[in-house]
Amino acid sequence: MINISFQVAGLVNVLVILVIFLTQKKIFFKTTRQLFRIIGLLILNLGLDILSLILIEYYEDAFFTVFICKSYLVTLPLISYMALDYVIYDIYKANVSLYRILYRALTPIGIVLALLTYACPINVINEPGFGKDVTSGFAITWIYICSIACLAVAFALTFVGKHKMTQKRAYATRVWILCWIVASLIQLLWNYILEMNHYLLLVGFGCSIGVVVLYISLENHGFYINKTLGIFNRQAALDYVRETYYRNERFGLLFVVFDNRLPALNDYDERKSIFLRFIDEVSRVNRGGYIFYYETNTFVIMRKDIDFGACIEAINHGYRELNPLYVNIADPYSVDTPIKIFNIAHDIITKTHPDIDTRVIMCNDDYIKRLENRVKSEEKIEKLINSGRTLVVLQPIYSIEEHKFTAAEALVRLQEEDMNIMMPSDFIPYAEASGLIVRLGRDVFKSVCELLKRFDIEKYGMHYIEVNLSIVQLQQENMADDFISLMKEYNIPSNRFNFEVTESSYSKNHLVLQNINKLIENGSSISLDDFGTGSSNLEYIISVPADIIKFDKMMVQAYFTDSNTKLVMNDIIKMIKSLNKKIVFEGIEELHQLEEAEKLLVDYIQGFYFSKPLYDDDFMEFIKSQEYNQDVE
Predict the structure, then answer these.
(1) Which of 11, 44, 460, 515 has its CA 20 to 30 A from that of 483?
(2) Which H helix or E strand runs over 208?
(3) pLDDT for 276
(4) Helix (H) or strand (E) holding 178
């Protein structure tokens, strides 16, 4: 009875897994369906094994007994073939065409090998107590050869293709196959090598143990469930989209992002209640699709029918107050890898202002291509900044009062590998958004320190170099301390630096104020740059501790072409001067503009009329070539 006990134990193992499998919320991956078939076939295998043992002991119809025994044997190569198919798919799922070729080639072979089992002779030994031999003959030898060969190939493939499998999947699959191989080898050794008195049947039991390991490790979809909301989580979305993409099936994705600034979404219980009602509503209109909780306040809806109109309408009807943003990716095959689908969605979500009027963003082919080009450009910018390919150029600033160049603005460029120069408008916005501006700004400041170390600019009538600071830099806790430390390291007086801050940079953030005040206390001066852009108003002029106000180029150009702008600017200039602040006109390009600016109360002129931005050596040659103590004609 020991063999029946083994098979019954194995059958109980598999039935328990089947019950859990059937009652669990799951996504039907290809491997999930494969495991389901393996479980079904293994139940058949163990059932036939138990039945064959009973028939051999108690039933006298030799033909029917032989048929059941052979049917049991046929299931063994079929299960081993399915194990091989499971591993092959896991390795080649990213190349569906190759997998299908292998599947179509191996399936007929597996069927033929199984059918040949029926043709092979088998002897049934009917001895009381299940003696030395229960069955014998070439069919058994044939089954061992076929099954172990399939399992050996599958086992070897987990090593050959390990770079295409996750480590967890590779290990679990090997354990599953090893349980089967070890059970087969023990059975073979016990029954045919050692020729023990009691016939031992372990193959089915060993396979059942392996299936338990496989299910618990890989196919237990409990780790795909968000325990709070009871729906599939981020990992489920990533894995299922990846598989669907590789299988070249039609599908669409809708990212739904709720405004995390809302008080209702910052209270745990209220948010949970809202989201549970939201999930029920979406599930009702999204039959046949899936809904995933992707990340904080973000859901992903997936369906094979890519029309999300009903979903959007339902969400807008019941949850408009949550200010939902929709990112609709109707053609995921516009990108070359499935993970890029999520990268693109993440990029859109993080860079879309929450108050944008357009709440539905359609990611069609053109949109995705533009995004991909932008991502490539940003990757290039990041590489250039991190590799230190920054160049600093200097644009002279002319003093109307002193009739000479008394300062210069340091401007940054990036040099590409092909020696092309990238202008600030192409990389500064990304550098600020990504935080790379901190590294970039420090590199620029060091370059200016090195320039001042090399050249005694005061000798040529120069007072200071202007260095731009962004809001990101100013919000770094030790930014001012770091810059002051660099001044001391290069032994440069602090009054050789004027730091430009824009209106958007200046705020009542304590770190911004702290850094600006430290620089001023150390002896450097401050300029308010780009005045006239954004939300310019006199509050900035009064509140910012700036010695110099720089009018933006666009506003300066408008002064010379628009009479209304001229009237307004004349009044503003008078008020600025009444506060004892200096004024710079940027963007002066023509002689008549210079002559008119000289008649105003403007203090400094900067623009192409005098010079374009120059590299440090060229800049110093330019300054040296001027009669710096004479009028510049």
Answers:
(1) 460
(2) helix 203-214
(3) 93
(4) helix 167-188
- Let me know: does 326 contact 256? Beta carbons within 8 Å: yes
pLDDT of residue 73: 80
Tokens of 213: 């390991």
- Measure the CA–CA gap between 620 and 151, rounded to whole angstroms: 77
SS3 sequence of 86-146? HHHHHHHCCCHHHHHHHHHHHHHHHHHHHHHHHHCCCEECCCCCCCCCCEECHHHHHHHHH
Name 221's Cβ contacts closer than 8 Å, sequence gap at least 6.
Answer: 24, 25, 26, 27, 32, 236
Residues 6+ apart with CB under 8 A from 573: 583, 600, 601, 602
Alpha-carbon gap, residue 569 to 546, rounded angstroms: 19
The set of residues, in sequence order, having a beta carbon less than 8 Å from that of 491 and lying 6+ positions away, is 453
For the chain, the distance separating the N- and C-terminal CA atoms, rounded to the nearest angstrom, is 114
Phi-psi region of 203 (alpha: psi -120 to 50; beta: other; left: phi over 0): alpha
Maximum CA pair distance of the chain?
125
For the chain, list residues with pLDDT below 50: 128-133, 535, 628-633
pTM (predicted TM-score): 0.57
State residue 442's pLDDT score. Answer: 93
Q: Do residues 68 and 230 lie in contact, with contact meaning Cβ atoms separated by under 8 Å?
A: no
Q: What pLDDT sits at residue 132?
A: 44
C-alpha dist (Å) from residue 422 to 158, 426, 440, 571? 48, 7, 14, 38
140: Cβ contacts below 8 Å, ≥ 6 apart? 73, 122
Q: Residues 198, 130: contact at Cβ < 8 Å?
A: yes
The owner of tokens 């990389």 is: 427
Q: Are strands 298-303 and 325-329 parallel, antiparallel or unpaired?
A: unpaired
What DSSP string describes 339-374? Answer: HHHHHHHHHHHHHS-TT-S--EEE--HHHHHHHHHH
Q: Are 407 and 498 in contact (CB under 8 A)?
A: yes
- Contact 473/504 with Cβ under 8 angstroms? no
For β-strands 325-329 and 360-362, DSSP reports them as parallel
